[in-house]
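Justification of computing resources. Each target in the renewal requires a structure prediction run like the one illustrated here; the chain below, 176 residues long, is used simply to show the kind of job we budget for.
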Amino acid sequence: MDLADAGGGTLSVVLIGHPRLQNDLKRATMEEIGHRTTRIETEGLGTDTAPFIDWVLKQCLADGTKVDDVIAPEARAFLAEKLNTPLQIAEHLNRAFADTFRMGAGQVTAEIVRDTISAGFDDLDARLARIGYSPKALAEQFDLSQAETRRFLKGKLDTDRTSEISDLMRQAGLPI
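Resulting structure tokens:
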């Protein structure tokens, strides 16, 4: 900062990370930095997911190859419904094509895509892990034991305690 100030310049630091970073910057130990930040949130692709999938596929296919020849429209629709970031889309397309190749199938089908997306993809613990909140991080942030945190994530706590923890997490801005 001193060098930038002495040279008449401006120093800007861009922090890019999980949504958890926002909550970490609100903590007392980080408030000096947190008060000087501007948060810009990206919500994934939103309504552009299906066009993005089509665009990615067209970029990867040889000239003259039709998208429908390599991946069924239903498979693309399922991916667009379940996924919302370019990273997720790239990962699951890669898995689907690899599984299709291993099976010797001629086309990625909706069934193959469903099998590549894990059964717990939409579970609370998986959603929170994708934004940087492991059970350990949740336990530390909300002053819980890791065992209680795991029981909460699996839906095995009593109703009152679940409601209490849910309220704490919503107040912190977690998407639960």
